[in-house]
Structure of PA0069 family radical SAM protein:
Amino acid sequence: MEPTKKTKGRGAQKNVHNRFLQDVHETRADFLEYCHKEGEEADKNKTTYTNVFPKTIVNKVQSPDVGMTYSLNPYQGCEHGCIYCYARNSHEYWGFSAGLDFERKILVKRNAAELLEEKLKKKSWQAYTIVLSGNTDCYQPAEKELEITRSLLKVFLKYKHPVAIITKNSLILRDLDILTALAEDNLIGVNISITSLSEETRRVLEPRTATIKKRLETVKILSENGIPVNVMLAPIIPSINSHEILPLAKTVSELGAKSIAFTIVRLNGAIGEIFSDWIHKTMPDKAEKVLHQIESCHGGTLNDSRFGSRMRGEGKIAEQIRNLIKLARLKYFKNTQMPKLNTTLHEQYKNGQYSLF
């Protein structure tokens, strides 16, 4: 039996079974009753950090529809707790649940900068944009103290190598000095994820992310400093934020964003169960409506893993969303676009400084 009390400050409201594990962990009602009588907490709801030491850090992206070729993730798991996050499933490969474990058990790659430097110095490596946060946010709360992402940016700058960033966190502004230096040689592009203009919606969807106000300020400050910004309206969730596409596009265009991108929510793997449990507890009056509309975008199922259609959706609702995005681009981004990053400088800086020969 699962606890019925809402877990504050978290997206997922339970741990779901890890498909790779035989044993199932269950929170029983008699245990909860015992904790209540003894005045103990059944679940302390704390975030823990574990150091891991991978041998490589740059990942070749095999999926043909994610818009990147190489990614780098200094953290596994993400304390932001976005309920819809596709990366939740990856936590199962580490032996954890895609639910609360994903938000509370964070794996930290402290040797990330050293591994990146080794990669960029290899004679066989040819410069190609590497995306920070292809899986989990490189500016999640742990980064404020650990500064692993900042150390990675220093490596990219040292070797004049192009890098793109995806984040929901205004903490990126801490590294404005490095970002502006990268921008001088067209080596940086930033993707800021903004799913809503409503702070109430943000709090329930993405409980530990930066506020909407701070994210909008981040778009403005980055743009004013010559750093190109693409805003990710992702994911679009029918009947939750689908009505905000045009207001969002207009707002971020006025703040200097060069483009927008979108995906339609897809609840693959364990996320279908996690999201369904969450919405019944958080928005019980509209839960079934939202779930059925999501299903209508993916051939009648919450779990859609088909390349090409999984992010764009299908059916009437998905078509309406795509048409709104098309209209938004015509109205607000007709003459702007993200620049292609510079891959020509790195070869001359393979040893960490400019080479004349």
